[in-house]
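User: structure tokens for this one?
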Amino acid sequence: MENLYNQLKPEVKKAIKKSVKKYPNSGRVIIAKLHLHTMYSELTMSDIRDLITFTNVNEYNWDTIDWKYGDKLFKN
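Assistant:
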């Protein structure tokens, strides 16, 4: 199975790469975690919060399914 980094939606991956330039240490940590895991459910809430922060995703528009399965961040 593909790691989570490879499963990111293209616009999310692009936003992470942009954020890594500004915050190299923190950005590398979340990228490493995404390479380590293959399922969204393996991420902690802290990891998800960091991912949202680095991608500038508006989580206020998320519904229960988006939080449960990460549909706004990852390809289906």
